[in-house]
Amino acid sequence: MKQVISVLIENHFGAFDRVATMFSGKGFNLKSITIGETEIANVSRMTIVTEGEGKDIDKVVKQLNRLVDTIKVIDLSETNHVERELALIKVDLQNTSLDEMKNVCDIFRGNVVDINNKSIMLEITGPPDKIDAVVNVLMPFGILEMARSGNVALRRGEQLKIKKKEYPSN
Amino acid sequence: MKSENVRLSGADILFECLKREGVDTIFGYPGGAVLKIYEKLYDVDFLQHILVRHEQGAAHMAEGYAKATGKVGVVLVTSGPGATNTVTGIADAYMDSVPIVVFTGQVPSHLIGNDAFQEADIIGITRPITKHNFLVRDVKELASTIRKAFRIASTGRPGPVVVDLPKDVIASECEFVYPNDVDIRGYRPVYRGHSNQIKKAAEMISNSKKPLLYVGGGVIMSGGSRELALLVQENNLPVTMTLQGLGAFPGTDEHSLGMLGMHGTYWANQAVQNCDLLVSLGARFDDRVTGNTESFATSAYKIHVDIDPASIDKNIVVDLPIVGDVKHVLAELAAEIQKPPEVEEWWESITKWKDECPLTYEGNDGRLRTEFVIEKLSEKTKGEAVIVTDVGQHQMWTAQYYKFNNPRSNITSGGLGTMGFSVPASIGAAFAIKDRPIVSISGDGGFQMNMQELVTAAAHKLPIKFIIINNSFLGMVRQWQELFHAEKFSFTDLGQSNPDFVKVGEAFGIKSFSTDNPKEVDGLLDKVFKYNEGPSLIEFKVVKEDMVFPIIPSGKSVADMIVKRLNPKNMM
Ligand SMILES: Cc1ncc(C[n+]2csc(CCOP(=O)(O)OP(=O)(O)O)c2C)c(N)n1
Known about the structure:
The complex is a heterodimer of chains A (about 170) and B (about 575). Chain A has about 170 residues and is an alpha+beta fold. Chain A has helices at about 15-25, 55-65, 100-105, 130-140; strands spanning about 1-10, 30-35, 45-50, 70-75, 80-90, 110-115, 120-125, 145-150, 150-155. Chain A is built from 4 helices and 9 strands, in the order βαββαββαββαββ. In chain A, strands 5, 6, 7, 8 and 9 form a 5-stranded antiparallel beta sheet that branches. In chain A, strands 2-3-1-4 form a 4-stranded antiparallel beta sheet, with helices on one face. Chain B is of the alpha/beta class. Helix content of chain B is about 35%, strand content about 15%. Chain B is built from 24 helices and 20 strands. Chain B has a 6-stranded parallel beta sheet with strand order 3-2-4-5-7-6, with helices on both faces. In chain B, strands 11-10-9-12-13-14 form a 6-stranded parallel beta sheet, sandwiched between helices. Chain B has a 6-stranded parallel beta sheet with strand order 16-15-17-18-20-19, with helices on both faces. Thiamine diphosphate binds near residues 391, 417, 420 and 443 of chain B.
């Protein structure tokens, strides 16, 4: 089963590596991992997608908590949350027309972000399963290149409270 | 503190911080990247620097020091090979939760990543084997980083911390401000157990008919031995210990069932299999304890007290977890128990198992055996010595036959099983412990893995008793070869190639003896225990083919326990 874990982590040297090392060291499955800044200085948020049963996820969460750099670990699979992914997809224009591509793009509320006489690049955002659907639709036309961002996710509603104090990084 | 606002170099700051952390001993080896530190060290008088002969020795010495005292052991080495040589010791400390801080030199910041001379990414290398590690990138962060390093190493579930010090950081200056406190927001170990959980545990103990305490190294680390003893005495509970737990409860006390697990006593393992309540205290259900987890203590409710939440439900799913410092939890637990459990029948069963299959060894053929040596040692020191073992058969025999009476007196490499641990670890312990004898016990194999440190012991005239149990084999591996690998004694016979251990000892200036005669054991032990002006060494030449029993084969269960060698003679 797919599981989504959100981790607030110190934004400093080596913190990301520590999480990645822990996953490989403990033999945990890692499907995607994203990291970016947050509203708090020196704190990053990682969104980790992993696969496993509830028991395995408990272990992952405990091991994440054990790392000194992690500030807060939330198992989002258990809570109501929003999950998004972005994909850039370059499609071969030889087997399709501009109109057809724009059509597909509109249906999925995407944007055309680059075009030339050989290919067209679409930008699609949405829940990961929507991206899967777009990829399915575009596959027959010939996808030349594709980049997916991996998931980002946030809990709905109430904001998690953490002290807004400034901390020196190290 | 105004007076402290002076400009200091990184090297000065390092020592100012060590002073404030109460460090009295560091184990180290100099080199290019740390020359500046060694320059300062020359004039430092508040601590002693112990020059080792190999950086692995330094790391194990720091472990020995830490395990014997509970204080943080400190290591100082240069970059590159100096740093990588400490890796085994760091991994060992990680597995056994030993608080050490390792300062490694590093090439100057601007050369990091350039394959500079003696550069190694020690932060990357040690990431999976440290509790935490730091690369100090600015001298302004040095003081707070050192503070954090000691805090992290010594609190919660202790462990090793590496602090990597680029050469330029050490050389540059800044205003020295010692942080009174450091806040590490991602690090908040929980010390107090949940009181409702503790109440429940108390009830479970009261109501059980066949309770068993399963005690690990956590009890020793938390300093909870007295609380444990109280709980046991008041409630008449049987206690079994892991390898790291030995000493947490007196081995001579009638409540002690000795060690459990792979080479544990028959009666301790029977108690595990038959108990209706297993209370794990600062232990982690390691595979050497559980064997096959499917068949481990199946009839028991399980309570697990541990300061590390990640240990709970890791190998064995328990019924009642209590996250907290085991000393605190033990004290509360003892206070919460309203009535002691009724355990008379349970004790009868245990006694029956004990009579059924006591620890025995062949003793009447006039040949020298390890068990005999350890028994003598235990008697002679009344279980009061600090015993530092290496890894192998002699380690298990020591665990079985030495009756450890005090916490922090059994120092051994458990989790990683590092051969070559004993010689340096005993030296580390000897720098801290002066009022009890220190005995290092190694096999002939493991002794040769770090014997260069005999120099360190001799140079400081440490009265360590080095004991070599020479069975001319890598004994434990030989045992597995005989039992499980078709008796192919592949590369385990050291008999032809072993050095003359007496000459080795003497070359280092150590009083050295050797015997293969059981009758001489007493006299030789007396001799070395009387001699305290420096180290001494005894080689005991023991029977080659002996095996450690009982043994539960790896991954099997108590039912598969082998209690003695099956050879045709025994079967008649
Ligand atoms: C560094 C290291 N290498 C290899 C091993 C595997 N090993 C475990 S026990 C053992 C044999 C130890 O032989 P010895 O030191 O003579 O002790 P004995 O078992 O005979 O008491 C070996 C090789 C180990 N534990 N550590």
